[in-house]
Design a protein that fits this description.
By secondary structure, this protein is an alpha+beta fold. The chain folds into three domains: 7-52, Uridine Diphospho-n-acetylenolpyruvylglucosamine Reductase, domain 2, CATH 3.30.43.10; 62-172, Uridine Diphospho-n-acetylenolpyruvylglucosamine Reductase, domain 3, CATH 3.30.465.10; 180-286, Enolase-like, domain 1 (2-Layer Sandwich). Helix content is 36%, strand content 27%. The chain is built from 13 helices and 14 strands. The protein has helices at 14-23, 36-41, 77-82, 84-89, 91-99, 103-108, 111-117, 124-130, 148-151, 226-232, 239-246, 249-253, 265-286, and strands spanning 7-10, 28-30, 49-52, 62-65, 68-72, 134-139, 142-147, 152-154, 157-158, 165-172, 178-186, 193-204, 207-216, 223-224. Strands 4-5-10-6-7 form a five-stranded antiparallel sheet. A four-stranded antiparallel sheet has the order 11-12-13-14, sandwiched between helices. A three-stranded parallel sheet has the order 1-3-2, covered by helices on one side. The protein is globular, with a radius of gyration of 19 Å.
Amino acid sequence: MYSANFDYHRAKSLSDAQRLLASNPGAKLLAGGHSLIPLMKLRLASPSAVVDIGRIPELRGISKSGDGIRIGSLTTHAEIAASADVQKSAAALAEAAGLVGDPAVRSRGTIGGNVAHADPASDLPTVLVALDAKIVAIGPKGERTISADGFFTGIMSTTLADDEVITAIVVPALAKEQGSAYVKFSHPASRYAVIGVAASVTSSGGTCSAARVALGGLVPHATRANAVEKALVGGGLDTTAIGTAAAKVGTDLGNEVTGDIFASAEYRTAVAPVYVKRAIAAAAARAGLA
């Protein structure tokens, strides 16, 4: 199927992109195109105009920023997966980026486009929530920083305004006593996450002093597993303890679990503890707790 007719504009700079958005109400931003173009071809999205920001150099690159890593919104999944800085400071993010789609998708798809699209089965939103990342966006009212924890609000829904542009994602660097990991049950055709789990744990005196666990694929948007986190903090992270905490994920899921022709809500709920356990165990091993 072909998309409906639309006007195409190529932005030369960030300020030019903002100008084009302001002068074309209802326009959509195009970065790598792997999220927007399929929707347009299926006519699930029919913007009157598309603003291509894919060639704005200031939105690319990975750099150290204070105690974290700043990733430009046009940085591709392949670049993130290959980055030594990301691998060292945010292992779960490097893992997730390397699991997105196939090589062609990873070479063109961008972190900013992925985050703005907010597909509930995407990998990166889940990891960014677990790592307490921040999304930096700019609009007519200036720049603002949004916590990933509150950025995703529903199926392909975020707090980003129509006239805002994501410029970067800032991820706190993990300390030596911290570890993070991402695991997923991939759909065999699309490679989207049927179940995706990201975990970050902190070690203190041989026990878990802090934990963040996020779920994707299972629910309408990436979300924290608060009951699992509470069960982890204050104890050791041996196999039994991790299994006990992972079993509490059902409390976090409630009745919002997604079901489809590939995997029912009941199946996802039953299998979820297995992937929660795997993510926590991998993160704990990196933190020296297991």
